[in-house]
Amino acid sequence: MKQIYRFCQILIIAIIAAPPCLANSGARIANEADGREWLSYGRTYSEQRFSPLNEINEQSVKDLGLAWSLPLEGERQLVSTPLIVDGVLYFTGSYSLVWAVDARTKKILWKYDPDTIGKAGETLRVLWGTSRGVAYWENKVFVGTGDGRLIAIDAKTGQELWSKQTVDPRQPYYITGAPRAFNGKILIGNGGAEFGAVRGYVTAYDAETGEEVWRWWTVPGNPLDGFENDAMKAAAETWNGEWWKHGGGGTVWNAMTYDPEFNVVYLGTGNGSPWNQRIRSPGGGDNLYLCSVVALDADTGEYKWHYQTTPGETWDFNSAMDIVLADLEQRDKTFKVILHAPKNGFFYIINRENGELLSAEKFAKVTWASKVDLKTGRPVEIVGARYEDGEETVWPGPLGAHNWQPMSYNPGTGLVYIPFTDMPGYYNDKKILPAEFDHSGFEFEVGVAGIQDDIPANIATSGLMGWNPVTQQAEWKSPNPGMWQGGTMTTAGNLVFQGRADGILVAHRADNGEELWRFDAGLGITAPPVTFELDGKQHVAVLVGWGGGVAALGGSMGAQHGWEYGKHPRHLLVFTLDGKAAPPAMPPPSFATPLIAPEFNLDKKQLIHGGEIFEKNCTWCHGGGAVSAGGAPDLRASPIVLDTNAMSTIVLEGALLSRGMPKFSNLERKDVEALQHFIRNKARLSIEAESAMVQ
């Protein structure tokens, strides 16, 4: 017995000490002690985004400097977590383009273009073009594309090995999340619940062949078609009406965590389709498994347990935020837990052996519920929060108290670092008639009033907090500009790194939040930083390319930083101690200037119709109130809007398809004319407001 034990010790030591290429991918991803690489979205299977490296620490970080940078030509929105495998950085750019960069030579090894724009078809109408990253397994890189494919790429050559269409291309499914790799399988989910009758699911594929291994649906379908399993049959008891005609939602567009200790996959499921439960499930019900953490057997996809954070959700309070694994003391006992901070504003600690809720407390401003009852595990809702009288303002809103930007957990400090936001949401369904609700697809339809007006710059506050999950309190908070910030990374050097909307990359002291170092990247940072060791030296890397939801639909809330569309180049930045490279030359912040066009005669009826068209088709990329936050051109400043023929060629015929501007087959020339009136009205209102401020 002693010999067997000693052999296991030697084997573990050998795996830790061995060159990375000698250990299989699963062992490498599971290895918390080896910080040389960053092999999975959250670095390891725990998704803690914690690195044991400490060469860069609270004392030495003052000497951190730029080692090198790489311009990423043609890129727009960069939100990806780079992986570092055998000295190569792998990351995604816009429209699921995959980059491989040699960290020693600083050269691009290859680029793989899945031609998302060319293959997306109608799905292009609902894409921002963002992608949060890739997965790695046994010399292969895996990417989910915006149009719903999962593709395996040779890590050395960049050649496509296999491709699988994971969604029905006739429906508005898309993929923005990073796949996960475990046990020879690749797991991928999807999004799209705002744009049609979408029913959520995840699928596991064989990493070698691309063949489907298992699929698990997150919400039940039409009972007349039968149920895929007992979990779906049980879930159907919690729905009312003909929910399946609206899809149901529950998409798994971000959070997927593999737990090697229990051989379980945890899913963070999304909001309802549509958001408004009055339409989706008249009469209420918990609507399982929306807004839940769901545990599945990793080999078979069989349901094991769930915990629902927002029963009967009706606010877009999805639980697609990261699911972090840790060992934590609760109730005078150490538990293996899940740490979870979803949109709804509560921080959850869940026993990952059985799904038992151990603790839940508010980490941001929350007015929809007073608390979570630990006896029942259910939130105690505030009367009226469900906009029963037709309208209500609640905190948080649809963008959440914490969105997809990853939090991180440092076992040394015991703190969780959460990018948090305090922002209200206004919900109004007074003009919504459930019987007439149209969810046919590819238009933004959520069952409450959409966004036609600008989103004010000062509507929200944000920051980074060091949250103590044992006491369920913030140990420290550091305010950030705006509300759309980057994800986090923490290290054994008592540091936590985060990029900000104003383009500043910051290193905070992890135990108390003190700012120790900053670097001006010259452009808003949304992507999370990573760290790795190369030739005995610790590096920090981050992608600089303002992107994501608020960079698209955010209006003045996102535009306030001056990252005007097409004005600022995108980069990969890599830092080391005593780095001496010069920062990339970047133009200063700039702001779109609405065109003055007095010859354009506005028609009130036309602009009202144009507002309805804009809300459902254009806000997603061009911003609330036609104020671009940088993700697409500002239409108030575009001369094309003054020319009906030119605008029709673009909108109806797809003249700018190659740039990612979709063709809108659902619109007609009269709709284009109405859009002109709406946009010109917004331009004039902006000019008048600015003139009044000057006076």
SSE blueprint and pairings:
Blueprint: H1 2-17, H2 25-30, E1 50-51, E2 64-71, E3 83-85, E4 88-92, E5 98-102, E6 108-112, H3 116-120, E7 135-137, E8 140-144, E9 149-154, E10 160-165, E11 180-182, E12 185-188, E13 201-206, E14 212-217, H4 230-236, E15 248-249, E16 256-259, E17 264-268, E18 272-273, H5 277-280, E19 292-297, E20 303-308, E21 323-330, E22 333-340, E23 346-351, E24 357-362, E25 369-373, E26 378-381, E27 391-394, E28 408-410, E29 415-422, E30 425-428, E31 461-468, E32 473-480, E33 488-491, E34 495-499, E35 504-509, E36 515-520, E37 530-534, E38 537-544, H6 550-553, H7 556-559, E39 571-577, H8 604-617, H9 619-622, H10 644-651, H11 669-694
Parallel strand pairs: 1-33
Antiparallel strand pairs: 2-39, 3-4, 4-5, 5-6, 7-8, 8-9, 9-10, 11-12, 12-13, 13-14, 15-18, 16-17, 17-19, 19-20, 21-22, 22-23, 23-24, 25-26, 27-30, 28-29, 29-31, 31-32, 33-34, 34-35, 35-36, 37-38, 38-39
Helix pairs in contact: 8-11, 10-11
- Round the mean pLDDT to the nearest integer and report it: 95
Structural class: alpha+beta
Spans where pLDDT lies below 50 across 5 or more residues: 1-22
How are strands sequenced across the largest beta sheet?
Answer: 1-33-34-35-36
How far apart lie the N and C ends? 86 Å
Main sheet characteristics: 5 strands, mixed
Strand-residue proportion: 25-35%
User: How many DSSP H or I helices?
Assistant: 11
Inertia-based shape: globular
The total count of strands amounts to: 39
Helical content (DSSP H or I, runs of 4+): 10-25%
- As a whole number of angstroms, the C-alpha radius of gyration is 24 Å
